[in-house]
Structure formats: C-alpha cells, structure tokens
Design goal:
homodimer, eight-stranded parallel beta barrel, 22 helices, 12 strands, 46% helix, globular
Chain lengths: 499, 499
C-alpha cells in the first residue's frame, strides 16, 4: 500500500514570526524565501492575519495589502492562507455584515485562497457570515474549532461543532490549538469522531503550538486518526511558543504509512534564510522554551505577561499568584470560553480587577459584554449572579441572538470617514484598514508614502554587535540608541547617534 | 485495562548538563534538587559517566568519587545509573581486565546501581568483561546497542546484537540514540523485534537525544512497541542537543494506555531548581535548537565543531564542505562504525587529513588502529586497500581477536605510579582516576585539598548582571516621557522611550 499523503501548511510567514518575534518581521525579510516556499510542495502558505496586519500599519509603515499582493506575485503556485476572526475580521469588535463581505471580497481579489475562520467563543453564528462570503468568492472556506480544556468541553461537543461548521458550507475544518493544550489522545478522539460522523473525506487541518512540548506527538496521533493537513513552521523559526519544525515533521514520516512529499533541499534553503533573519529581531524574542504548567493554569504565556504588567502598573506586582488563581474562576463564571484573542485579554483583565477591587466589584466593559452575550454564546452557562452584576453596572440587557444582528449598516459612514483622512488612496482596502484599526490608520495613511520602516537590526548593526561582543567592549562600541516613538497610536523607530 | 507503567530515567544530573552546558555543572548546583529527584518516582537517576568524571578533575577540582557518594547519600531511594564505555571504562583506551573489574567493584561500593555498558563499534567482546564484573557485584548490568544508520545496519542486526548482550548476562538492554537519528518507525521495529525474539519481558530502555526534533514521537512509538523505560531530562535543561523534556513526556500520556506515575509537583520543583542554575553556565551553552541535516551528513554537532577548529588551525577553514563530504566515505571505509566517542573523533580527524594531505596519504595512529581491528570488530567490512595502507604505515598486523586480550596486567604498575604522585590519598579510587586520566590526575591530586572550583557565575555576579540590565530598563522607564506637542493648531500626545 502506498503511503497516505499528509498536506503541510507552512506558518513561518504569519504565526511563526508572530509567536516567536512579536509579529515584527518586515516583508523585505520574507521575500527572499518565497520562491523556495512556493516550490517546496506545501498544501498552503499561511501569510496573513490580524496581528500581521496590525503590525504592518502600527510598527512597520507597510501596507498589509501590498504585502498580500507581493506574496501573490512571488508565490503563484501556492494556496495563500489567512486567519480571520469571523465577524471581528482582523479587528476587536463585531462588524456589520456588509463590512465582512467587503473584506472577504477584497482579500480574495488581492490573492487570498484559504480563509481559516474562527470565533473566540466558538459561536458558529459569529463565523457564518464570513464563511458565506468566502464561499461566494469561490475561495476555500475553512471552519475552525478553537480547542480548550474545561468541564463542559467534550469530544462529542467538538464533533457537534464540526457538523455546524460543515452545515455552514465549510470545505474543510481546522482544529486550532492556540495554547498547545491538545494532547495526543484527545486529538485522536476528536479527529476520529469527526471522520466517523461526517465521512472519512471530511478534510481536517490541525494547528498546534509547541509550548507544552507534546504536540509533535499530537500530530502523529492525528495522522493515525486520519488528519489531512498539519501546520508546521520551518525549524529556524520553530518550537517554544511557536510550532513544530517542518523538517522534523518530514523526517519522522520515513518508513511509516504516511508521506508529505516536501522538497527537503528547498526546506533547508528556507531554514537558512530565516536562520539569518532571526537575529535581526532578537529584541522581540520570546524566552519560553517548554511550559507544561499551562495544562493546569490554562494561562497562555502572552496572557500571563500582560497580567503581570497590569499588576505592576498598579503597584501590585506581588499579586500574580492570586490573579492566576482567579483566572479559572473568571473563565468558569463566563461559561468557559477558550482563551484566545480577545477572550484571553478580557478574562485576564477581569481576574486582575477581582484581585485589586474584590470579586466583581468592578467589571470591565468588555467583561460585562461577554457576560451579557455580546460576544456570542459560550458553551458553558454563565454565572447568573455575575450576569446580574453586569446588567446592573451597565444598564444593558443580556442578549441571546447573534450579536451582529444588532448592528446598523456602517459601510457608507466608514467610507466617508476614511475619505476625510489625509493620505487615504480612495480604495476599499483603505476603508477596511480604517474600519479595523481606527486609532492607527490615520497616522499610517499620512506617512505611508515614506515606505517601510523596519524595526530589525541592520546587517551592519549586527556585525558591529558581534565585533563589540568579540572585543569585549559591547557597551563602548555601540553608541547608537534606537528609540520607539509612539505618536497617535503608531510607533516610529528613531535612531540617535553621536554626530 | 489499567494503563501500562513506563519507567523514566532522569538525565539532568549527567547527560542533560553534558549535552547543554558542556558538562560543567558543579555538584553544589545539583544537591538542592536531589531530594525531589529521589522522591519523584523515577526508574533510575543517571548521574555519572566519562565526561562528568573528566570535567570534575579537569575543570571543577572535584573528586568524582565524592560526587558519587554525595548522590548516594542524598538519593537513598533511587537507582543511581552510570554510562560506562565497556573495556575503555571512562577513558580513551582499552584497559586490562583486572582494571575493569576494580573500576566496577569500586563504583558499586561507592553507590552505583545500574551500569549502562556500551562500545563505540558495538563489539560485544568489548562489553563482556565489564558486564561480567557488574553481574558479580550483584548490581544491574545493562547492555547497550548504539544506534546508527548505514547500509549494513539493519533491524535484524540490532536484534541479533541484543541477543548477544542478553547471552552475556545483560539484565536489560539500552537502545542508545546518541545522535538523535532514531526515527519512530525503526525504533518500533527494533523494539518489537527484540521483544518477539527474546520474550516480552526483556527489559528495554530507550535513550534519545532531541537534536533532530523527532524523538518524542520516537518515544511514543517505542511505547507502542513495548519499551519499558525511557530517558528524559527535566524541561529547564532539555531540547536542542539535549533530550526530550520530562514533564512533556508525563503530560502526553494522559488518557492513553500508558502511565509513568511521576510526581508532577516534585518535577516542577526540579524544573525550577535548574531554571535558576542554568543562567550561571550560560557561557557554556550550545546554540543548536533543531538540526535535521544530521540524517544526511550523520555528523553530530560536537564532531562538526571539532573538525572546523582543526581545519582553521591548519588555515583551511574554507574546506569544511569537502571534509563533510569525506566523512561518509571514511566511515564506510572503516566498516560503518557508529559515530560516538571515540569513533566520532577518529573518523572526523581522518576526514580532515584526507582533505588536507590527499586520501589516506597520512593516517592518524588511531585511525590506523581502527582499520586494523584494535578498536574491535565493526559491522561492515573495512576497505582492504585502506587496511593495507594502515599496515604499511604502522608496521602493525591486523587483529581479529578481542583487543584487550593483547594487554598485559597493568594494575600493580598503575598503583605504583599513582602512589608516587603528590596528593594521592592511597585509595584504589585514586589509582582508577590516574589510570583513566593520566595527563590530568597528577595536577588534580596536587590541588584537590583546595576544594571545588566552580566555573559557574556566582549569584552575586548574576545579580549584578541583572541589576545592570534592569538599570538599563529602569533608565528606559525613567526615560519614558509623554509630551504634548502642538503642531499646526492640533495637539498630539507623543510618548518617547528607549527601544
């Protein structure tokens, strides 16, 4: 029997550098690898999402649409893939349906092929419109199950959600393990359950992070259960809070009943490319290598560091442990939402508030909205007492319908607002940029013509550092200081050196 | 059915810091973790071997026997385990049988329980004496299969070698993957083959490094094939050229047909201990994270850096690629020995000589000995033409018998030589130290009374470094200033901080 082919999605152009280098990589540091990525034989190339879009306009003075068109041009043979937050698009609130449609149309037009659509609370109604829009463009709509661990999350529940996504027109399903919590056995059980319920030809893609150190085994068991495509990142930008290394995945299949037909010499060239790039972004590197405590605390690394800085800002840096103990309580009271943008921030901030001011003495507006249904339906029941507090504090009534149904048409107004901004180019793409990042877009439009501002160290700076380190005079030799200057929500990099 | 229990050998006290921190860790940095290690439920605790012994007397001014007795005292409930190079003991040449016996007796007497006996060319005759000696002491003799990839190495061959080791009295077998070359499928096939040939109750221990990034999956497949014990290292000293993280291994078993019954709260304490210790040895850290090219080059990382420095010393630093291409040729001509101490050094140096002086124009004495059988019998046939060159250059005849049979009694002479050394304490342990490290022992004995010299940074030095870094951050924080800037009638808020 010839081995079964497993597809691979390469993550290095999006989630790889997002997880390891705080999403700071400039397009100019990616283009050199594109030809090899395009020809290596991947199922798809993930290259766009909320954080990369945000980083482009906030830190890099890059137009994210130009980046997308660049990828399209440089990788003509590849399926380009993006991560889309359902009704939130790439922003942090719900958008009215027409805005969702326009975004999907424009993304498809600019070259996107595969739309991985997810919702933080796994509410299918928050994914439906985006999925429909993708299907309408003729592109690939992938429905997503965000994986978490809780008393209400079961294999059967995930299998049921898979069915709802398929009913909505999903051409494939993604099982998304953003916190590296998915162990081999549940991965096997969920994938087998989906295949047995909806047919063996139901395409399932698996996305795992590697923080907990167990998920390469998860990929193995997922293959045995029938998974079709797995996500990996080239080894020079892998592991820790990132993903399993692509080349290791390829090698581990030797002699088994699986193959992935990737071109190893090209993979090694991609690896070498990013091995050279990575040191330029060392200032943004994550320090985590392996962390298995997330199985107990369920607090992803990024969320923990956020909470710590919130506490320090309040002079309560000694209360981290107390807050960590609050997180599971707040998560349970909110109906056990998966912790992923934006629920991780909402739950984490409320846990901080509970410790600083007493349990639910003060709610954040976002947490109140979560309790009242404005982020959608959570799988577990919300705590009715806390919901009553939310209602009392905000004067808003709880809702059970689809949150976006409450929104009024907003496209025309967004167009008007965008056209009033200096530097806007009159395109729908600019309207979408403004819609999703209203605080950052105006400054970006104004300065766009200046072209990309990299935040990477230059080759000359790296060489100087290396020389300084070698000569043991690191302090004296580097007289150049780089400042981040934030202005109107955008950050510019300014280098200062002695004249 | 209750889950099958998999034993775990904790490596952090030997191979963990050997692979990641160049074996430099001082005993004083280990003692604080011993109680938790002792009570965590491991099958055994690896804590002694050639490199740690060498490092003790060469770099740390520690008596390795004192270290062993310290472990024995602090871990009364644990099986202490060591790695023993068969007839080479912990040195780099063959020793006469009485020296081998004495070493094993003294090790057992000082507290060693499990002796993992290996030979670089997998010649059982080089392991026989050490195994017999272990059996005689009543301790646990573990016979070792060094894993490599070559045209002559087959699953059947490894299974046959396993039988020879069992015939020699091995109470268990170790499958030793020192270069992270063992993929899941061959691991499964070898272990299954051994179990089916010699009985399911044949104990098999699996030792994998993690350099290639695939071997946690290897452990998974090994369990499915029936492996009894696996080697891991606590997460804060894991991955890269080290090993798979202990806590990740524990977590991945949840819900499966396997368990390992380790005490997670204790594991986390051990992790925290070494997370604090690791920065003190940052100067010795390996930079490798993932390397899959070893599957093709079969050149372990340490061997490559050795060859590079040899070439540079000869002003031939540009010939690394040529040398890498020579290694597989030299390895094949030598009969495909596994590359592990000392064969990795011998093959690597000859590859360098072949590039510098022409193929086999000049042989090293060690390479000639390897070609002539003085390191034992290699699985593949040696190239007869190269063997003839070795014979001509050295005037030595090839041998086919057990190399140690040629040795004359040497114990009494070693005793006499040791007793002549300043600072020797008259014990057999000192004789053994001198026997194995004749170049280093005299200086060690002379200075032993001064007590341990750590090469770690002190807490004070680390604190000073941290303070310096923090004061940099503090400066940056102090230097974060928010300005209101009025420009063209509009006021912007500008925040400036050190990047």
């Amino acid at each position: 029997m010839s081995p079964r082919k497993i597809g691979v999605t390469e993550l290095v152009l999006r989630d790889g550098h997002q997880s390891l280098l705080a999403t700071r990589m400039a397009t100019e540091d990616m283009v050199g690898a594109c030809e090899d990525i395009d020809k290596a034989g991947y199922w798809s190339v993930e290259c766009w999402g909320g954080a990369t879009y945000d980083s482009c306009i906030r830190f890099l003075n890059e137009d994210p649409w130009v980046r997308l068109r660049t990828f399209r041009e440089l990788m003509p043979n590849s399926r380009l893939q993006m991560l889309l937050r359902g009704q939130n698009l790439l922003g942090y609130r719900h958008y009215e349906d027409l805005v969702v449609e326009r975004f999907v149309e424009k993304s498809a037009e600019n070259g996107m092929d595969v739309f991985r659509v997810f919702d933080a609370v796994n509410d299918p109604r928050n994914m439906a419109k985006a999925m429909q829009a993708v299907v309408k463009t003729g592109k690939h709509a992938q429905g997503t199950i965000c994986y978490t661990i809780s008393p209400v999350h079961t294999v059967e529940g995930y299998v049921k959600l898979a069915g709802q996504l398929l009913d909505m027109g999903a051409q494939s399903l993604a099982l998304k393990d953003m916190a590296a919590l998915l162990k081999p056995q549940p991965a096997y059980d969920i994938i087998r359950g989906i295949k047995e319920t909806y047919g063996e030809d139901t395409q399932i893609n698996l996305h795992c992070h590697s923080t907990s150190g167990v998920t390469l085994v998860t990929l193995q068991k997922a293959m045995e259960a029938g998974v079709d495509v797995v996500d990996t990142s080239i080894s020079s930008l892998s592991l820790g809070p990132g993903h399993n290394p692509t080349e290791s995945f390829v090698e581990m299949l030797e002699g088994t009943e699986f193959t992935c037909d990737l071109d190893m010499p090209r993979l090694l060239k991609i690896r070498d490319h990013f091995a050279k790039i990575r040191p330029k972004y060392a200032a943004f590197e994550s320090a985590t290598l392996v962390d298995t405590e997330i199985f107990r605390t369920q607090i992803p690394g990024g969320m923990l560091s956020n909470m710590e800085s919130q506490l320090k800002a309040q002079g309560a840096g000694d209360k981290v442990k107390e807050v960590m103990d609050q997180v599971p309580i707040v998560k349970a009271d909110a109906g056990h939402p998966p912790l992923v943008t934006p629920t991780s921030q909402i739950v984490g901030t409320q846990a901080v508030f509970n410790v600083l001011f007493g349990p639910y003495k003060k709610l954040t507006g976002e947490f109140a909205d979560l309790m009242l249904g404005y982020y959608g339906h959570t799988l577990g029941e919300v705590n009715p007492e806390v919901q009553a507090i939310a209602e009392a504090q905000t004067g808003k009534a709880p809702i059970t319908g689809r949150p976006a149904d409450l929104l009024k048409p907003e496209w025309d107004e967004l167009v008007t607002q965008t056209k009033a901004l200096e530097g806007n180019d009159g395109t729908d793409e600019d309207v979408l940029t403004y819609a999703m990042f209203p605080a950052v877009a105006p400054e970006f439009f104004k300065h766009r013509a200046e072209g990309p501002h990299t935040v990477a160290k230059s080759d000359a700076e790296l060489a100087a550092e290396k020389e300084a380190a070698n000569s043991g005079k690191a302090q004296a030799a580097v007289g150049t200081i780089t400042y981040n200057v934030s202005l109107g929500g955008r950050t510019h990099q300014v280098r200062v050196e002695r004249a």
